[in-house]
Write a structure and sequence with these properties.
The protein is of the alpha+beta class. Helix content is 29%, strand content 28%. It is built from 14 helices and 24 strands. The strands form five sheets. Strands 1, 2, 7, 8, 9, 10, 16 and 17 form an eight-stranded mixed beta sheet that branches.
């Protein structure tokens, strides 16, 4: 493979050195992007964690590659955003084909009001490598243990004991909370007998990463090409776009009756690639044949064990909602769990993670299923509708909005859920909205939001004192901020950069204090009592 995986060393845990059973605020099962991002987020809040993984390398194969704007903003808060931007590829031009004919194309113009682009293509192994490097910045807060396999758990009212197997012997450790970040085949989920609820799709898809020194596009600018009924392939769809290191992702729909083992063989893959790229030199970098499920757990929070990422919900890869949704789980859970462990909030606050991220998972599954049904019609009527939309889309803009080749992940609104105050201001952004970025004279707004509650006031009439324990951020003459948020507005911003409450200038301080009580979960507790 083009990327050379490093093997990280096994280090003897203190529990095997005769130092007794370790006790940790948080134990994280799984050192993928979700587990490592979770540990970093907790460390930024001063919370100590141990990560346990049965492997000793980052992911093999590119796997998740398309990271959306909101996810990039979260990674930037965690400290690896700039590395991802520097290494990643952002395509501008997207082309959609129906058979041999180009239906339409679009240009993703950069947004000067945001630091992060709409997305970046970057192989998952790079993201994981950057997270490993970032973890090294927290030697006293993150204990990353490779080749430590969790095989059992004992759950009590005040914590969880984990049984861990290693090459040097087995041991137990205890944690106040355990975060299951061990993916779609989560062992702890299976041992607890928790079932996914959803739909399994029988279609098979071939993914191959191809290294090509000569780009297949008509221009040097990276593009994304998607085909319905491609002339070079008998399946329903095909996709081609670029990653770093001259690696190109090719995704081919194979149908439900194909043999995954047979289709992954080089003698099957190479002729398919040649049909797409012609006589260009290429080398196969990675191959995978997959089918998928759109499903989720009924609950993500099970007392002291909390499920995060693919262990809690899975979707199809169309629209890049898997990895992006998991990182948004991290963003939602980190500050809440930290507040509970510090004694700043009751465990009732964790119920809002369950509430808000099940909503996000449902929205991702809905959009993912819609894309799947458009791309793989299940009846003659669905196929006729799909073909009619594609025929109209070349000339009629309204039909283009109906074309669904996997719409990119967008963050969901949390408006109307427990922690958000009602939207009473007749203007401005609604509570529950992720904070949009804005250019400042010396940087970007989102780089000043996050980690703690912040009272953002905009305009001379809106300047007011922040409630106790809340940081104040004031802008009087900042056109970029005003353009995004409105003038003479007051916003209470959550530590995950979501708006908890919005007020117009002149709002009574008691209303702001009430919004803070609600946003920290105290109102939910009072209602429950």
């Amino acid at each position: 493979m083009h990327y050379q995986n490093r093997k990280y060393p096994f280090r003897t845990p203190p529990e095997l050195k005769g130092e007794g059973r370790g006790i940790y605020p948080v134990a994280i099962i799984g050192a993928g992007p979700i587990g490592m991002a979770m540990a970093i987020d907790l460390a930024l809040h001063g919370i100590r964690s141990v990560i346990l993984d049965d492997n000793n390398m980052v992911s093999v194969g590119s796997r998740a590659i398309c990271w959306a704007k909101r996810t990039l903003e979260i990674f930037d808060r965690l400290g690896i955003g700039d590395r991802m931007l520097e290494k990643g590829v952002t395509w501008k031009i997207g082309r959609l084909f129906h058979g041999k004919e180009e239906v339409y194309n679009f240009d993703l113009l950069p947004d000067d009001a945001h630091k992060m682009p709409a997305f970046v293509n970057l192989q998952q192994y790079y993201v994981e490598e950057y997270l490993v490097d970032r973890i090294a910045d927290f030697p006293d807060l993150i204990d990353l243990r490779w080749l430590n396999k969790v095989t059992d758990e004992e759950i009590t009212d005040d914590g969880v004991a984990l049984h861990v197997e290693t090459s040097e012997g087995n041991y137990w450790l205890s944690a106040d909370y355990v975060l299951a970040c061990d993916g779609c085949k989560s062992q702890i989920r299976q041992r607890m007998g928790l079932a996914f609820e959803g739909q399994t799709f029988e279609e098979h898809f071939l993914i191959t990463d191809v290294e090509m020194p000569e780009p297949p596009f008509e221009s040097e600018t990276p593009e994304r090409w998607f085909w319905f009924k491609p002339p070079f392939h008998s399946g329903q769809s095909a996709l081609l776009h670029k990653q770093p290191d001259n690696i190109y992702r090719i995704d081919l729909q194979l149908g439900p009756d194909t043999d995954p083992t047979e289709e992954a063989k080089p003698e099957q893959v190479i002729p398919r690639v040649k049909q797409i790229i012609g006589d260009r030199d290429f080398k196969i970098d990675w191959v995978s044949v997959y089918s998928f499920t759109c499903a989720m757990l009924e609950k993500f929070v099970h007392g002291r064990i909390i499920f995060v990422g693919d262990s809690a919900h899975v979707v199809s890869p169309f629209g890049a909602r898997g990895g992006n949704g998991g990182i948004q789980d991290v963003d939602n859970l980190g500050w809440k769990l930290a507040a509970v462990l510090k004694g700043d909030a009751t465990p009732a606050l964790l119920d809002s993670y369950d509430e808000e991220r099940r909503h996000g998972a449902r929205e991702n599954i809905k959009n993912s299923a819609r894309a799947t049904n458009f791309m793989t019609p299940k009846s003659k009527m669905e196929a006729m509708f799909r073909d009619a939309v594609l025929n109209l889309a070349s000339d009629l803009p309204f039909a283009r909005r109906l074309v669904n080749s996997g719409r990119l992940s967008l963050p969901c609104s949390l408006e109307g859920f427990t922690l958000q105050s009602p939207h009473t201001a007749p203007r401005g952004l609604a509570p529950g909205t992720p904070c949009p970025d804005a250019p400042l004279e010396d940087g970007w707004l989102l780089n000043q939001l996050g980690k703690e509650f912040i009272l953002l006031t905009i305009g001379a009439r809106a300047k007011t004192l922040a409630p106790s324990g809340v940081k104040s951020l004031y802008f009087e003459n900042s056109p970029g901020v005003v353009a995004q948020y409105g003038d003479d507005m007051i916003y209470l911003i959550r530590p995950d950069q979501h708006i908890a409450a919005a007020f117009e200038a002149g709002t009574d301080s008691k209303a702001i204090e009430g919004a803070l009580v609600r946003a920290t979960g105290s109102l939910a507790l009072e209602t429950a009592i």
